[in-house]
Amino acid sequence: MIKRDKGVTISQVAAEAGVARSSVSRAFRHPDMLLPETVERIMKAAEALGYVPNHTARALSTGRHGNIALVVPDIANPFFPPLIAATQLEADRSDFCVFLGNTEEKPAQEDKLLGRFAGQVEGLVLASPRLSDERILAHAAQRPLVLINRDIKGIPRVLIDSGSGVRQAAEHLAELGHRKIVYVNGPHTSWSNRERRSALRSAARKLGLEIVALPPIVPTYQSGHRTVDAILETGATAAIAFDDITAQGILAGLAEYNVAVPERFSLIGCDDVLGAVTYPALTSVSNRSAEAGRLAVTLLMEALQSGAIREARYVLETHLVIRNTTGPAPA
Amino acid sequence: MIKRDKGVTISQVAAEAGVARSSVSRAFRHPDMLLPETVERIMKAAEALGYVPNHTARALSTGRHGNIALVVPDIANPFFPPLIAATQLEADRSDFCVFLGNTEEKPAQEDKLLGRFAGQVEGLVLASPRLSDERILAHAAQRPLVLINRDIKGIPRVLIDSGSGVRQAAEHLAELGHRKIVYVNGPHTSWSNRERRSALRSAARKLGLEIVALPPIVPTYQSGHRTVDAILETGATAAIAFDDITAQGILAGLAEYNVAVPERFSLIGCDDVLGAVTYPALTSVSNRSAEAGRLAVTLLMEALQSGAIREARYVLETHLVIRNTTGPAPA
DNA sequence: CTGTTAGCGCATTCAC
DNA sequence: GTGAATGCGCTAACAG
User: Under a CB-based contact definition with an 8 Å cutoff, are residues A301 and A94 in contact?
Assistant: First the structure.
């Protein structure tokens, strides 16, 4: 049992200050229970010895660790970094540390990580989880849990309603004269994907558009690229992709086939994570991932303070950002 | 002291299995010290009761928590997500959890986070820290610490030698006939930035190139964009930017001034995080951030196992990836 | 091999 | 207001 730390303990401070251990503890946790002069004497002794409260011992005694965990399916997807940063910033405001889990889109890995975190966090934030409802509910039963982009009744959740943006996308394409549109599905366990697809379907019905849905894929540049053949085979004149990364792959694939965008084909992404860096600049549905992260942590902290899990369902609306990959349907 | 967990303890399992508490502990930590049949009986009892070892109690007793922390200056910078993902994956292989700290390029925040993590991690990985040598050494004295892209003697470190790639960049520009080149500095506390600048300077001397260095900036799209005026004022025909994000901003700025790239101006980035998504596709110096993350954790785990901090300095070479933002110097 | 005994460092009842 | 005693849940000697 080799300890690297010098390990100044509460006892040593107590001895130095000539008080009982409990008083040292109080000086740090409930200073108002002690005479100001006593507190000062203890603090001075602590300072002198370089005492630092032992986080682990405190956690064992109180059951509180001051940590939360954030689990995401793919850090490398530009949708998540802003969410992660916002989550951390908000957690920091309450002096919480953040464990980060990357599941590589694998439900099993997600389950495993949640188990690992379980013992040392007050609460969890799951962003776009790929896990089953049952497993999520099981974890939520153990400790406070907030979902982002997953709609499970009874669990506090923050939903980025890309549906509103996708509707605008459909209307935009309809106005441009497109009649047949491809939807490139994302992961089939993704709530956002179902939301986008169904928003598109219902909008299409109203607008008299024909929708062709392609099989689910893991949303990556490569996946998007590979799907171009299937897209062109449909004879559609426009496509809406599950996300910008996929759209970016599609854009590259179209370029290789010398299909001019937007002259011969129109393309719309989702999440607006690429800004105007593609060429042509990608028309996309806005995202509000940073806000979602911040809000999720706020909800979690409220739950921790109140001790009660409040049913809550926050919806963040989105809109279409029109750039240069959409144009009139070819004659 | 309200505990939400049902809190099945080692004692309950011991009672159920009809053994001492220590035997239960052994069944989990050193099964080979017990009779196989005893182990099995204990495990069955544990299973039945839904026992799960209490991480905190174990940590208090052993001083080992199974956590490491990774601190980065800016998650949103695409250089880091692959590094973070690789770090986690490697930590996962040893069943370690990863705390993530985002410092927003602020040394003070870095120091604060390190203090917060201190009590509950075995070791630290600092990627591109902006903190002073003194503070880093102080933290390294407390517990194992591995650096990425920071060269401090005595501390194990993984360095991505962008110098080799920058040298190639200088040669590439020289061959294309450029004589005067701007270097757009990154953060002045960045080791990588100093490395790149000095590699460029020495290469320039050999090649007879003139280098104009611009003041340090925080590497963002906006910063790059704002620096375009200064770049054009120098009368140079090419620029090498601290990183791709900055280069991307510069590219946008040049486009606004109708400065054709690469016909009238050549531009090279660093880190190659954008792939071929800019237009024109950006010539850039390759990065090996994922490898760096993986290696750093490997070193950290070795240090934890051996208990000794081995002086180590790993250098990962880079090279120039030529795309479409570099061309012959205008006549 | 297994049970007994002591802590790990701190927070928190109780008395005083 | 402060001290003494107890427990958080587990691990690690030390016996047997």
Answer: yes
